[in-house]
Specification:
The chain contains eight helices and 20 strands. It is of the alpha+beta class. The strands form four sheets. The chain has a six-stranded mixed sheet, sandwiched between helices. A five-stranded antiparallel sheet has the order 13-12-11-14-20, with no helix packed on it. A five-stranded antiparallel sheet has the order 15-19-16-17-18, with no helix packed on it. A hairpin with a 2-residue loop joins β17 and β18. Bound molecules: adenosine-5'-triphosphate and magnesium ion.
């Protein structure tokens, strides 16, 4: 039976020369969770995963798997399996030999390897391909082969670094769903690195958002979408992401240009006399076209058939509005934008933190 591991990172610091890749990462991952590490390129996701795998040393902090300090433990003794973006299959071995390789390395008996390979291959539906060489497989089949090789040892912890990024869009969607099912059926803890927010949103139980070597928010996809902790997170989540407009919070109002709006519930509505530079966030789906509200100009419209995105200029910014039906607007037309104050988000302009 596969057991699922808990993972804990405490104050992990990683430096490359004078450059600090990770500035003190703290993280708790629960047994059986599908946990995503999400963030833009260079934010430290792969570094964190490699530290978990034991492929990278740390400059400070501790790594605990199931409560045991493994910071100094060799990769081979951590009972984890890793799948990389490049599948790193051995080209001269056939699929069966590739899948069985981790077991051969630890001296498992051939008959036992054979059985384990059959089982793993069946789980990812490549039983009919065992005699082929990796070069004779499609990208999706290679990806499954890499997955089978990872699960053959029945690890406690499954580490995946952008494992779907070499697949085309359609196959990626299908494989994403299968991967999720596979993880559930194995009951294994999975840590999944991606820079694709939509992928993280749809696949993860919880996720950590990385920015510049720091975790800025941890939560369920729903929590992070509903309440982004900073303007940077808000600008990273959603398709398209949240619109961010410079505004001023004064006398209990949010002012954008000449427009005075009520603030979101719970954000500075006390009517204090403070004058604070803020950022007002509104999701594209929460904006309405009309005759009242913030003045804007239509730039162009993207028509997706069942929905459309209207690109506008407002308050000196590019703003995106999502509409169900194609709205009757012309390029260059002057319009106004309104929204429910309850659906807005407020961030401090200096710190970027949610108010
Ligand atoms: N060996 C190294 N020497 C110097 N800098 C490094 C080294 N490895 C990684 N870095 C730097 O550490 C930072 C984090 O890298 P990391 O690979 O973890 O990013 P990432 O979040 O996985 O990005 P991506 O989405 O592009 O894969 C980057 O700025 C990278 O340039
Ligand atoms: Mg990476």
């Amino acid at each position: 039976m596969t057991q699922s591991a808990s993972v804990r990172l405490e104050g992990i610091v990683k430096r490359h020369g004078t450059f600090t890749a990770l500035h003190g990462i703290d993280l708790d991952i629960r047994p059986g969770e599908f946990f995503a590490l999400l963030g833009p390129s260079g934010s430290g996701k792969t570094t964190t995963l490699r530290i978990l795998a034991g492929l990278e040393s740390v400059d400070a902090g501790r790594v605990l798997i199931d409560g045991t300090d493994v910071t100094a433990t060799e990769p081979g003794s951590r009972d984890v399996a890793m799948v990389f973006q490049s599948y790193a299959l051995y080209p001269h071995m056939n699929v069966g030999q590739n899948i069985g390789f981790p077991l051969k390395m630890i001296g498992t008996a051939p008959a036992q390897i054979e059985k384990a390979v059959q089982d793993a291959a069946a789980k990812v539906a490549i039983s009919h391909l065992l005699d082929r060489k990796p070069g004779q497989l499609s990208g999706g089949q290679q990806q499954r082969c890499a997955l089978a090789r990872a699960i053959v040892r029945q690890p406690r912890l499954f580490l995946l670094d952008e494992p779907l990024s070499n697949l085309d869009a359609k196959l990626r969607l299908e494989t994403r769903a299968e991967l999720r099912k596979l993880q559930r059926s194995l009951g294994v803890t999975a840590v999944y690195v991606t820079h694709d927010q939509e992928e993280a949103m749809t696949i993860a139980d919880r996720m950590a958002v990385f920015m510049e070597g720091r975790i800025v928010q941890v939560g369920t996809p729903h929590e992070i979408f509903r309440k982004p902790a900073t303007a940077t997170v808000a600008a990273f989540i959603g398709t398209p992401p949240m619109n961010l407009l410079p505004a001023v919070l004064a006398d209990g109002h949010v002012r954008i240009g000449d427009e005075l709006l009520p603030p979101p519930p719970g954000a500075g509505g006390g009517g204090g006399m403070e004058h604070r530079e803020v950022i007002l966030g509104v999701r594209p789906g929460d904006l309405r076209l009309g005759t009242t509200g913030i003045p804007a100009r239509v730039e162009f419209v993207e028509d997706f058939g069942d929905s459309s995105i209207v690109n506008l200029e407002a308050a000196g910014q590019r703003v995106k509005l999502r509409a169900g039906e194609l709205p009757a607007v012309r390029e260059g037309e002057a319009v106004r934008l309104s929204f429910d104050p309850a659906a807005t988000h407020l961030f401090d302009r200096a710190t970027g933190n949610r108010i």
